[in-house]
Recover the amino acids of this structure.
């Protein structure tokens, strides 16, 4: 089991959703695969929805251009 800290890199305002740099969540995965790319990033999207109430898919920010994953 691996634990990742996923942090936003840049500010983005799309579809009425504002993402600020530095917003972060922790995501646990079964394998050591990057959670942004694994399973379409669903674990990351769920974590941001749970913590911030932000839908990363609707904001079109569920990719490595806007998110950085660090294994902890």
């Amino acid at each position: 089991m691996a634990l990742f800290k996923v942090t936003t890199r840049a500010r983005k305002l799309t579809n009425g959703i504002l993402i600020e740099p530095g917003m972060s969540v922790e995501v646990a995965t079964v394998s050591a695969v990057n959670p942004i790319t694994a399973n379409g990033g669903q674990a990351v999207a769920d974590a941001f929805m749970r913590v911030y109430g932000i839908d990363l898919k609707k904001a079109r920010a569920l990719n490595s251009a806007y998110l950085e994953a660090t294994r902890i």
User: Anything to note?
Assistant: The radius of gyration is 11 Å. The first strand starts at residue 2 and ends at 8.
